[in-house]
Amino acid sequence: MKENEIMKWLLEVEHPVKGDRNLVELGMVEKVEIGDNRITVTLGFAKHRDPLAEYLIGSTKAAIIRNAPEGTEIEVKTIIKDASQPKKKPGLDLGFEELENVKHVIGIASGKGGVGKSTVAVNLAIALARLGYKVGLADADVYGPSVPKMTATEELIPDAYQEGEKEVIMPLEKYGVKWMSIGYFAKPEQALIWRGPMACNALKQMILQVRWGELDFLLIDMPPGTGDIHISLVHDIPMEGAVIVTTPQDVALADVEKGVNMFRNESIRKPIFGLIENMAWFTPAEHPQEKYYIFGKDGGARMAEKYGIPLLGQIPIVQSIREGGDSGEPAALSTRPDGLAFATLAQKISEIL
Ligand code: ADP
Fold this sequence. Notes:
three-stranded mixed beta sheet; elongated; 11 helices; alpha/beta; GMP Synthetase, Chain A, domain 3; eight-stranded mixed beta sheet
């Protein structure tokens, strides 16, 4: 491996808010060091709190992993070029100023992936907006950000700018909701390699540096599961509490238990406002009155009772909900029965909060 070769790989890393220019063109690659089975790249940032620092570090690693021989150890260091600026790690000292005018910050969690957490989060956000509330949604699902696709905004890139000492990211607006997603900055295959602290910092930046403005509800679509990222997120973001999405299947219910325990954990202790049972029954498009309990009946209700939390709503499996997610026009925009299921859920949540 030669330095030139590695520089060529880094041409693949484009800066998301500086047109299509890559790190090499932008003069951000300060140093490339090659050791035995090891590559160290140093990136230079002009500002001590670049909102995209974590993203660019992640993308740089991803570009090297794609090209380097398997097993190569990779390190990406950063330096601040302007020596007059205090040197701080990006993202670690963010305040809550941007959340000052947000009334309720609510986590949308699930014990495991694939239960429809993101589908519920996006539709709930739209349904709350349709009830007249000011709503934002931060898609913090680092392992599979779905807001860009579900709202057909994947071609857009949020504006980011400097305001005095501070970096600000503007949310995108569509369907009456303000959206932010880790997916606007990272392609799915890049997001996947983010681990531990790197993912946590990127997520915190993506929530705390966003100019949300005045909101009644900010929903945080959390990554599925109950690992370190979740605990750190719940710790560092002033969430009022959470709702948990599940399906009626027994195995999903066992995972719910982990989710419930996470929020009730000593070091977290956040209220769980309730459970949302997704895929509660199947209703064929041509027979809207029929209900088939293909994942079992009343699993959500049993679990809610077991943990003493309310069952906030039941969402059926309907083809149009899946299609709405794929086409970027979520079901909650419609007045069909599937859209109304989300409206009922939104009504319930606004009542309890
Ligand atoms: P998660 O965020 O929990 O991983 P997603 O929201 O991405 O899950 O949903 C997984 C898949 O299931 C998607 O294809 C989505 O369209 C589909 N889906 C989710 N909920 C429903 C539903 N109630 N009816 C039909 N399809 C659904």
